[in-house]
From TrEMBL:
Organism: Lysobacter stagni
UniProt keyword terms in alphabetical order: Coiled coil, Membrane, Transmembrane, Transmembrane helix
Residues covered by the CusB-like beta-barrel domain: 253-325
Coiled coil: 170-197
Domain YknX-like C-terminal permuted SH3-like: 340-406
Family statement drawn from the similarity comment of this UniProt entry: Belongs to the membrane fusion protein (MFP) (TC 8.A.1) family.
Keyword Coiled coil: yes
Chain ranges of the Multidrug resistance protein MdtA-like barrel-sandwich hybrid domain: 84-230
Protein name, as recorded: Efflux RND transporter periplasmic adaptor subunit
Transmembrane domains' residue ranges: 27-48
One Pfam match: YknX_C
Stored Gene3D superfamilies: 2.40.30.170, 2.40.420.20, 2.40.50.100, Helix hairpin bin (1.10.287.470)
Top-rank taxon: Bacteria
Length: 418
């Protein structure tokens, strides 16, 4: 009994005893989780917050030079054009058998560019050859008969004088001779017609060969073997040309000058051309002619400009900027060359013309001196240097030192589609 009582006492809960100390493991786990969240937040702020900034569009500043001893009196934009360019086609309708040109290939005058299927033309020539042969044989046959009748008429003439034959027999011989002579003339004319027809058939065969009309460079290949080509636009799947050839020695520049400034341009006037593809390359030239017609819609006059430099880098339809130079005046002191920027890069702040230059994801505000207006661009003579990046359409709240983010092509795409 005592043992049982002792066991029951041991199983009794002593509520007066102090509680066991709590475990701190959960507290440390919670503190570690909070610290991890704080670190992640700092990293996200450092990465995302640093890339944040005002989204802007930018453009590159283009350096321009002066004309040395000649000052530019006018600037205009235009394109390189070819005065001698042809889309070569066949003279007849036919199926292309072979094309012997490729884009960029140089061809000489008379070089074969393509051939057409000559089956029909060859058949026509064979028929004309046979007809010409038959006509020549007919001529020889009639000529032999004429010789026989002439001999008969001559013999009967002698016999008539001797009164050995009647006069009527002689007259019949003379009539037969004259008839055959006329028949011979007709046969000879038929032979000539057949010969002419054969020559035309030869031309038809030659028309199946397409040749280059002049020396130049192939800029387009328009047909492939098996296609039907025709000099007339018949629609459907019929091609109208084999390829396009450009005479690179005939390249020149066509610019459109505003009516208000055309008085500054004179024939033989020196110019300096700058291709958009090669901004640092100044090409000398001169004015060929001023086209005596104006465009009513654009209020411009077209001016032809000759390039004095021949170079394979100059190709048709290239954009070019032309500076018309004023020659023959005393040389002026060399001026510091300016730069060219889009007009949208110039902003007005506190009554001053400024531009914002992007460097290390921040903008620098610079005061600029603005010169001439050249189309959609403005000349800046002070404050900017070639190659720098400027902000276009700067927001009103943009200030010096602000962080910016240059809009990428993917970000600009929705705006362009709108």
């Amino acid at each position: 009994m005592n043992n049982s009582a002792d066991l029951l006492k041991e199983l009794r809960i002593d509520r007066s005893a102090p509680p066991p100390p709590p475990s701190r493991r959960g507290l440390w786990i919670a503190l570690a989780a909070v610290a991890a969240l704080v670190v992640l937040a700092l990293i996200a702020w450092a990465v995302l917050g640093r890339s944040r900034g005002v989204e802007v569009q930018t453009a590159t500043v283009t350096a321009i030079g002066n004309g040395g001893g000649s000052a530019s009196v006018l600037d205009a934009t235009g394109y390189v054009v070819a005065r001698r360019m042809a889309t070569v086609s066949a003279k007849i309708t036919g199926k292309v058998r072979e094309v012997l040109i490729e884009e960029g290939q140089r061809v000489e005058a008379g070089q074969i560019m393509a051939t057409l299927d000559p089956i029909d033309a060859d058949a026509e020539r064979d028929l004309a050859t046979a007809q010409a042969g038959a006509a020549r044989s007919q001529v020889e046959s009639v000529r032999a008969r004429v010789a026989q009748t002439e001999a008969d008429a001559h013999r009967l003439s002698t016999l008539v004088q001797q009164q050995l034959v009647s006069k009527s027999q002689y007259d019949e011989a003379v009539a037969a001779r004259d008839s055959l002579r006329a028949e011979l003339i007709t046969a000879e004319r038929n032979a000539k017609v057949a010969s002419d027809r054969l020559r035309i058939a030869d031309i038809g065969v030659d028309n199946t060969i397409v040749r280059a009309p002049f020396a130049g460079v192939v800029t387009a290949k328009a047909a492939q073997p098996g296609e039907i080509v025709s000099p007339l636009a018949t629609g459907g799947f019929t091609r109208t040309g084999i390829g396009t050839i450009v005479d690179m020695d005939s390249l020149e520049v066509e610019v459109e000058v505003g009516e208000a400034f055309i008085g500054r341009v004179q024939p033989k006037m020196p110019v300096e051309a700058t291709l958009n593809a090669y901004q640092d390359w100044k090409i000398p030239g001169e004015v060929i002619a001023i086209i005596p017609a104006a465009d009513r819609g654009k209020a411009t006059v077209k001016v032809r400009v000759a390039l004095k430099t021949k170079d394979p880098r100059i190709v048709p339809d290239m954009g070019v900027r032309v500076s018309f130079l004023e020659a023959g005046k005393p040389e002026q002191p060399a001026q510091k060359p300016g730069v060219l920027v889009p007009a949208a890069a110039i902003s007005s702040r506190d009554g001053k013309q400024v531009a914002f230059v992007v460097a290390d994801e921040r903008v620098q505000r610079r005061e600029v001196a603005v010169g001439r207006s050249l189309g959609d661009d403005r000349e800046v003579t002070q404050g900017l240097a070639g190659g720098e990046t400027v902000v276009l359409d700067a927001p009103a709240g943009l200030s010096d030192g602000d962080r910016v983010r240059v809009a990428t092509a993917s970000e600009e795409a929705p705006t362009e589609t709108e």
